[in-house]
Write a structure and sequence with these properties.
single chain; 265 residues; mainly alpha; two-stranded antiparallel sheet; 13 helices
């Protein structure tokens, strides 16, 4: 494989933070979900988080973080977004939603483990039930009858939230290249999630359910996931960017408030 292609894969591998950070999503009874307008998305986002005033966030790396935010913005605008737009024109939305469902299905071990670690036994049990139902009746996870028919929705929990549950402080804010807003606690949590995920080769010697056997396969799977997820969210980032007076503190404060809210739930 040519070095240029490998470089593109590596860029796309870490683009998820720029455009695919977890955001609350409403469930819809059909596999093809309708998308709200960009203005509605921003209004809901602004209502949920108080972005009108900057919170007291420990930010000793503000200079670096601002530069990295600009860098990530350019990567999204000139690399990921055009690729995702072309991808969206190639595959129908229903198929792209099914691909996303399948990826979420395979990440069930992460959700089960973190719900257990936070003593959310009912949620963990429901995640186990979701996996069984969607495997059998959802064609291996491409469809989500557990949500649409039984009302068993995902209980998203990650290792960053688990660390917060046990009292670990977030530490100072860090904007990661390509990945976007984060903090010291969530960077550690990201390592745990990566180890647990079936879609990465990290720890494949010790974890039996790993799908990729090497880094190249792992990068290819992540590339597909990032482009697919971004194609289902086109317009959201642009709306936030257009309405934010200062993009960096807006993203920083919104990320911090959102993560704190997730930990409290």
């Amino acid at each position: 494989m040519k070095p240029q292609i490998i470089s593109l894969f590596l860029i796309l591998f870490v683009l998820s933070g720029c455009a695919t950070k977890k955001t609350p999503q409403s469930q819809h009874p059909s596999i093809v979900q309708t998308t709200s307008s960009s203005d509605d998305i921003f209004d809901e986002f602004e209502d949920e988080f108080d972005t009108s005033s900057s919170a007291q966030i420990f930010d000793p790396l503000e200079g670096y973080n601002r530069l990295m935010t600009q860098f990530n913005d350019k990567v999204y605008t000139f690399a990921l977004e055009p690729i995702a737009q072309g991808y969206a024109k190639t595959l129908p939305e229903g198929l792209r939603v099914s691909i996303r469902n399948f990826g979420d299905h395979l990440k069930t071990p992460i959700r089960i483990t973190n719900n257990l670690l936070q003593f959310k036994f009912k949620n963990s049990l429901q995640e186990t039930g979701r996996f069984a139902v969607n495997t059998i009746f959802g064609l291996g996870g491409f469809f989500d009858p557990a949500s649409t028919d039984l009302g068993w929705h995902k209980h998203d929990e990650d290792f960053g939230q688990t660390l917060g549950f046990y009292g670990f402080k977030e530490g100072f804010h860090v904007v990661l290249p390509f990945l976007g807003p984060s903090n010291l606690r969530d960077i550690i949590g990201l390592g745990g999630d990566t180890f647990m995920s079936p879609l990465t080769n990290l720890g494949h010697q010790h974890v039996a359910y790993k799908i990729p056997n090497n880094t190249l396969e792992s990068v290819g799977i992540k590339t597909m996931e990032v482009v697919n997820d971004t194609s289902l969210k086109l317009g959201q980032y642009e709306s936030i960017k257009r309405d934010a007076l200062d993009l960096y503190p807006f993203l920083r404060d919104a990320y911090t408030q959102y993560r704190n809210q997730q930990i409290k739930e």
